[in-house]
Design brief:
about 40% helix, disordered C terminus, four-stranded antiparallel beta sheet, Jelly Rolls, alpha+beta, 8 strands
Length: about 190
């Protein structure tokens, strides 16, 4: 289990978690082996897990006009993929296929519930990290980034049943810092 804690700690998404939180997630995660050429996830499918490359290499394929798959990225050890579907509840945006024999650490959405349910501050941290990764990929304007960040935070709150202390979504967005809604202040 210590090896999984170390793998999670090295992952940008989980680096901010406490040792206790990592120790809650680690036993729920799984190391999966794939042969070269195997499909890990398919574009358009439901995404209930994210993955970290422990060994090997994978390629990210995107469907383009005419039903042709185009290679858009190649990921190696330490890279993660699948987090956007896990946190937004949207279908997979690309297909990922192994290029060589690979070991992937899989973390399912439900594996994260014990640390995220009822923890709005941690949900906000994850939302910020996922949004930063998404913005890096899409290079949107600042206003568009803020709007997407707030939308992402709301989606994550809905997925992980985070209540905002009775405040409406509009109240939360009005108190937002650039990029993310703040946790409501307790009076």
């Amino acid at each position: 289990m210590n090896a999984r804690v170390a793998l999670l700690r090295d992952n940008a998404l989980f680096a901010r978690l406490s040792t206790e939180q990592l120790e809650q997630v680690a036993p729920l995660s799984r190391c999966l082996s794939y042969a070269a050429g195997e499909i890990v996830v398919n574009e358009g499918e439901e995404g209930l897990a994210l993955f970290q490359v422990v060994s090997g290499r994978v390629q990210v394929l995107k469907l383009i006009e005419g039903g042709i798959q185009k290679k858009v990225a190649e990921l190696g050890v330490g890279s993660i993929f699948g987090e956007m579907s896990v946190f937004t509840d949207q279908p997979r945006s690309a297909t990922v296929q192994t290029l060589q024999e690979s070991v992937l650490l899989e973390v399912e959405r439900d594996d994260l519930r014990p640390i995220l349910d009822g923890n709005p501050q941690l949900v906000e941290q994850f939302a910020e990290l996922v949004n930063d990764r998404r913005m890096h990929l899409t290079s949107l304007s600042r206003d568009a980034k803020e709007a997407q960040a707030n939308q992402l935070l709301q989606q994550m709150r809905n997925i992980f049943n985070i209540l905002a202390g009775g405040d409406s979504s509009e109240d939360l967005i009005m108190r937002s810092k650039p990029g993310l809604a703040q946790r409501p202040e307790l009076g």
